[in-house]
Amino acid sequence: MNADAVAILRRRFPGVVFWYGRYTGSWWALLPPPAGWRLVEALDPEELTRAIIQGGSWPWPPR
Fold this sequence. Notes:
- By secondary structure, the protein is α+β, with helices and mostly antiparallel strands.
- It has one domain.
- It is 30% helix and 25% strand.
- It has helices at residues 3-12, 45-53; strands spanning 17-21, 26-31, 38-42.
- Strands 1-2-3 form a 3-stranded antiparallel β-sheet, with helices on one face.
- The protein is globular, with a radius of gyration of 11 Å.
- The mean pLDDT is 83.
């Protein structure tokens, strides 16, 4: 996990809970309302950023 990426995500998206899954190798975020408590998965911090911005889209990642 990249500590710089974590710091950037925390500053950019306060209130969003996120983590890197060592077992899954994926980045995860739990988006609070108004998106409606969504759990999203991404391959990297850039994709996670897109998933957070498009939090109303479900499911994420798109198929």
